[in-house]
Write a structure and sequence with these properties.
Layout (H helix, E strand, L loop, with lengths): L15 E5 L2 E4 L4 E4 L2 H4 L8 H13 L11 H13 L4 E7 L2 H18 L7 E5 L8 H6 L3 H4 L9 E4 L4 H4 L6 H19 L4 E6 L16 H12 L2 E5 L23 E4 L11 E6 H9 L14 H15 L3 H20 L5 E7 L2 E6 L15 H11 L2 E2 L1 E7 L2 E8 L7 H19 L5
Parallel strand pairs: 3-13, 5-6, 5-7, 7-8, 8-9
Antiparallel strand pairs: 1-2, 2-3, 4-10, 9-10, 11-12, 12-15, 14-15
Helix pairs in contact: 2-11, 3-11, 4-10, 8-9, 12-14, 13-14
The structure holds pyridoxal-5'-phosphate.
């Protein structure tokens, strides 16, 4: 008997007992290759000796200090190191306990910034359809993931949504990727004009879309145009790098590859790498100064903000990613994974697209690869892949969702950066077993 309230109350799932490199082991001794790092969390695998040691040392030194103190030593060191590697202009780091809270803090900071500088009417948020930015009420209001929003609808603040940059579905045959990206970005201009530029607070987007569409990178130039539009209208650009940040796409921050910097960004998942729950919000010096010279008090704070043990763990993680070369490894092994996926599934009748950056890869499953017709929602292909993969000893992250009335099934892969080539072969082989089981005759 258990008194735990699990999220899936009806699911018959095993109990996890042990982590070993890129593998997880359940209470029956069965081993699972962690092909998605949970939800793109475990970038160092499950038994990293240096991070475990950093946690032990910090618990022995200072486990917790409340906000009667300004910060702590590990929080200061982590903030400095993050800013050293962050996109230009980002200058301050606010530590929280996870991704939803980092995004919640980002929205609240944007709101408070405009209040402090005397523009209270700027409170409208624009985000993208089918986006996911977290599960608290504030960020649920921002996300464009309808099934998550609908049960809470009367409580959500007003947000409007434009299309995501989704070339596989929306690039026209007569259009280059660049032309499509500019057309998609210009939806933001149109929406800002519709709302009145002086009313818009922020545009919110994931640089590479993770949890809802399976590693969809933007087309070249898309985010540069988005940045120009935001600048022209004084709208803040908030990038959600909770999933795609911390080296997942082959650079520490995903937006580096798009040649832009945000006003505010949120990171989490890979920051603690699963060893501690931690997230962070980074903002520009200009935004920080508006608070510092205004009320001097950011209206957001939870008990565990800047937790010493969590920041000490993240400092060890960040050291391994940057000085230890694991960001570069994410880039290199990502290419190996992409090639292996293309070799195995490039001609698969139900694989429409294989995409991503670094060790952040996605597969879009379709009923017909020529017409790109999706499976009907009732086929539950994503759920079938998940179940079959799990039985075969592979954890991956299948998902389904609807953009502009079109259903889609996707599989996200985000293995630890320490994955070896032979383990990539194992991952792809097990995924092949799962795809056969899910898309074969049993699927229709
Ligand atoms: N933003 C993105 C892009 C995410 O993928 C997630 C989680 O999957 C979140 C925010 C929320 O993070 P958390 O689950 O740590 O609250």
């Amino acid at each position: 008997m258990t008194h735990v309230f699990p999220r899936h109350t009806k699911a018959d799932l095993p109990v996890a007992v042990h982590g070993d490199g890129i593998y997880l082991v359940d209470s029956t001794g069965k081993r699972y290759l962690d092909g998605s790092g949970g939800a793109a969390v475990s970038c160092l695998g499950h038994s990293d000796a240096e991070v475990r040691e950093a946690v032990r040392r910090q618990v022995d030194t200072l486990a917790f200090a409340h906000t009667s103190f300004l910060t702590s030593e590990p929080a200061e060191a982590l903030a400095d190191k993050l800013i050293e590697h962050a996109p230009k202009g980002l200058d301050r780091v606010y530590f929280v306990s996870g991704g939803s809270e980092a995004m919640e803090a980002a929205l609240k900071l944007a709101r408070q910034y405009f209040l402090e500088i005397g523009q209270p009417q700027r409170h409208h948020i624009i985000a993208r359809r089918q986006s996911y930015h977290g599960n608290t009420l504030g960020v649920l209001a921002t996300g464009g993931n309808m099934w998550r929003r609908e049960p809470f609808a009367p409580l959500l603040i007003g947000t409007s949504h434009i299309a995501p940059c989704y070339a596989y579905r929306d690039q026209r045959g007569d259009e280059t990727a660049e032309a499509y990206g500019l057309r998609a970005a210009d939806e933001l201009e149109a929406e800002i004009q519709r709302l009145g530029p002086d009313n818009v607070m922020a545009f919110v987007a994931e640089p590479v879309v993770g949890a809802t569409l399976g590693a969809v990178p933007p087309t070249p130039g898309y985010f540069r145009r988005i940045r120009e539009i935001c600048d022209r209208h004084g709208v803040l650009l908030i990038l959600d790098e909770v999933m795609c940040g911390m080296g997942r796409t082959g650079t520490l921050f995903a937006c580096e590859q798009d040649g832009i910097a945000p006003d505010i960004t949120a990171i989490a998942k890979g920051l603690g790498a699963g060893y501690q729950p931690i997230g962070a919000m980074l903002c520009t010096g200009a935004i920080y100064r508006a608070i510092e010279q205004g009320s001097g008090f950011f209206q957001h704070g939870h008990t565990y903000l800047g937790h010493p043990v969590a920041t000490a763990a993240a400092l060890a993680v960040l050291g391994k990613l940057t000085d230890g070369g694991l960001v570069a490894r994410s880039q290199a092994m990502g290419e190996v994974l992409q090639s292996a996926l293309e070799a195995a599934f490039g001609q698969h009748p139900n694989v429409g697209d294989i995409r991503g950056r670094g060790l952040f890869r996605g597969i879009e499953l379709v009923a017909d690869r020529e017409t790109k017709d999706p499976f009907a929602p009732g086929h539950n292909v994503a759920a079938r892949v998940k179940k079959a993969a799990f039985e075969a000893g592979l954890i991956c992250y299948p998902m389904s969702g609807t953009v502009d009335g079109r259903h889609g099934d996707h599989v996200l892969l985000a293995p630890p950066f320490i994955i070896e080539e032979a383990q990539i072969d194992e991952l792809v082989r097990k995924l092949g077993i799962a795809l056969e089981a899910a898309t074969g005759t049993g699927a229709a």
